[in-house]
Amino acid sequence: MLPRKQRGLLIALCLIGDMAIGASKCGTALGETGHTDPLIKWRESMTHMNHNGAAATTSQGRERTIKNQRQFMEDYIFSAKDTPEMEFYPAQGTKTKIIRTYHNDTIPSIEVSSLGSARELHGTMLLPVSGHVGTENALRWAKTDTYDIFLEGSRGKTPIVSQAKSLGLITAQEVILKLKKGELLRLTYYRSGSGGPSGYPSGRILEILWDGT
Question: For residue 25, what are the contacts with CB-CB under 8 A and spacing of at least 6?
């Protein structure tokens, strides 16, 4: 396995972290919605919108970071013959503090604030295929996989995305997460071509804590 370089989550939060829900298939790609935002047009063929049919607020810098990390993740699948971790990019303007990043198989964790009474965290996830059993399988699964995303906590497992279609080696998924003050929740990623979060917790789980503001 090649060593991880700069983590996408860390890069994203450094760039945008301090700048001022029901289950859904989320099966509509950005390019099929007639979305005209020029900032995200570059990824229209690889993006599923959130359950409101929209994307998180973004910027040129945020999109540049997502684009660079997507390329790094694809390169990693081919060069390391391994699976990169999922990535989460909070919406532009979300206040975010890094509690723990990927390191020695620990689960990454963030704290968010300034969500207001809506209690909603908007963001973009980068979701990779499994690459640890060869690029031939990865390329096949890029076209045939489906995936599910859950928010897990004291209320149980809340489905965020159900049976969405893979849109390539890396799929971008827009999400809206309903949070609860002071409760540590887990954003988890299940993919049909892999064993799920239990087999790769540091790469398939993100812990999120909202401070209530």
Answer: 161, 162, 163, 164
Domain count, the chain: 1
Do you know the residue count of the chain? 213
Give me the tens of pLDDT residue by residue for the chain, a chain 213 residues long.
Answer: 344 544 455 444 444 444 333 344 454 555 444 556 899 999 999 999 999 999 999 999 999 999 999 999 999 999 999 999 999 999 999 999 999 987 667 899 999 998 988 999 999 999 999 988 889 999 999 999 999 999 999 989 999 999 999 999 999 999 999 999 999 999 999 999 677 798 889 999 999 999 999
Task: Kindly state whether residue 3 falls inside one of the protein's structural domains.
Answer: no
DSSP 145-202: -EEEEEEEETTEEEEEEEEEEP-SSEEEEEEEEE--BT-EEEEEEEETTS--GGGSHH
Q: Is residue 49 in some structural domain?
A: yes
